[in-house]
Amino acid sequence: MDVTIYEVAKRAGVSIATVSRALRGTGPVAARTRERVLKAVEELNFTPSRLGVSLAEGRHAANGIVFPDLAGPYYTEVLLGYEEVASELGRSVVILSTKGRTKVNDLIKDLAGRVDGLLIFGHTVPEPLVAELVRLGVRLVFISREPLPGADTLRSENTASARALAEHLTGHGYERFAFLGAPLASQDDVDERWRGVRAALGGAIEAVPTRHYTVDCGFDAAKELLGHRTRPEAIICSDDEVALGALLAAEELGLDVPGDVAVTGWDDIMAARHARPALTTVRQPMRELGARAARALDELITGARATPRHLILSTELVVRSSCGYHPRAESP
Amino acid sequence: MDVTIYEVAKRAGVSIATVSRALRGTGPVAARTRERVLKAVEELNFTPSRLGVSLAEGRHAANGIVFPDLAGPYYTEVLLGYEEVASELGRSVVILSTKGRTKVNDLIKDLAGRVDGLLIFGHTVPEPLVAELVRLGVRLVFISREPLPGADTLRSENTASARALAEHLTGHGYERFAFLGAPLASQDDVDERWRGVRAALGGAIEAVPTRHYTVDCGFDAAKELLGHRTRPEAIICSDDEVALGALLAAEELGLDVPGDVAVTGWDDIMAARHARPALTTVRQPMRELGARAARALDELITGARATPRHLILSTELVVRSSCGYHPRAESP
DNA sequence: TTGTATGCGTTATCAA
DNA sequence: TTGATAACGCATACAA
Fold it and tell me: Which controlled-vocabulary keywords does the entry list (chains A, B) (predicted)?
């Protein structure tokens, strides 16, 4: 844009203060004056400079979001819910992917300087920097991370879901399990899932790590795993994408799912419903995580709430056909 | 952040001008002075205010992106390429989804005030507003839209790919076709695809519109279509998601693909490879579209290039198994 | 009801 | 080599 409040003021024959008041309704303005101002605004096609407003107001009216990668539906879904609510609250969303970036710290600091608050996934941001951000008073909300002081955290329930899933599978009569996508480093969500199923299944489950949580990695690891003479009866995957890979591997090996081997996922991404066979999984409310994060951030920023809050959203076991035969299979 | 350049200056015993110069290397600073400044910066943990910098520099160092929706892999992939290159060029990315939004114009104007340039998908933005943005000198790049004056446009080739696809299908011996996801309003890409296959296939193809370009809509429309007594031998879909829906519909109706009916998609999203049967489709370089858009915008913003450019990226026919039996079927 | 003047945090010009 | 100081575009306390 180009035209400033001064030109509007001059054209309307008033001061810039009056223009500002007329536009924001932040003080008394005579009806006739307001009209003149509005007319000038219209004629000049004036839009207040975001920079000027932000500088004067001392806020950006923008939220940031930091994720490792946007490939795959999980982060996208969360982002969707986040952006929707943020926009509703009058805030823009500035994104930052850390995948393959060097100098992540600088990028995040820059981002922090552009927004009023940050949504951060898991352990995307190095711990020392998190501490620094907290110290600087940056409003923070984390998704899928253990609680920490000075920031909100938002998670999905994992342990109980893991038990429910394990029990459903033992109900099918399975006795030998594998957990595909086992955590190498501690990735909070996956870690909880793994510990949950292991607690329920005891020694009957074997951990099989993947390099990443992607279809391809799931495919590779499952192919290796299923090639063994003594393959597991059921593969519990860390997430739906890994599970999708496992499904493909089974098919390539000529194995029937769930006849020869059962497979389950986690998250309930859209493709889970469309997979053949349809994937049994644990539904995680991804969009709601994003939406809640936006609201939580808003509370923190506006000061509606001062003390951090740590929320755990509940999940739901979604039984489809990849985990075994059911009397009445749920339709996709 | 909180500490300003004034505090640094005071601590270092110099003026703010010197601090600025020392930090940006934009003028002569004695070595000893620089050291004192840097030390003060370090001790106070000073980071220049983005707002101050932007106001003084007259630029945001940020790009915007406007898309209808982020659900589905297409926009996500483009966004990924866009953000990556933008970040490489030192620019943040501010996103805006128009899906389900009222007052889209205001949102877009606000966004335009936050960034140095905008990437816009197809006809997401109302034409009058586009004209206004052009008039205001906002740098614009469009993806998937016919060329217009005053902005860059970036597209994938559609017509020739359509012909190649049509010829491949007639090579299978099919004679009755349907185009699923036919354009209701003019949606540029889909429109070109439809016109392309119609030109190649003539009267042998029937247009079947869907409400949206989603799996669900594809499913519904395909179920209806395949329920008829005289169903087509091959369904050419507007895009992969619609095609995925068609695959599901066929399965639900007990129809074999490609035995009873052939199905093809467009885009080559990740799920296309993993579909059963694997989807024959036209690959579109989605990430590269995003990456190129970011570079084009940068050229426009820095002034490296003044005149708009209209680019068409080439596509590739990807033959898998959903379109018919091949002597040596390509592995997924 | 309106106007003046100041602050917001930089960069950059021009003197010194 | 350094320092005052004027932009940059707005909001707002305070005065009139």
Answer: DNA-binding, Transcription, Transcription regulation
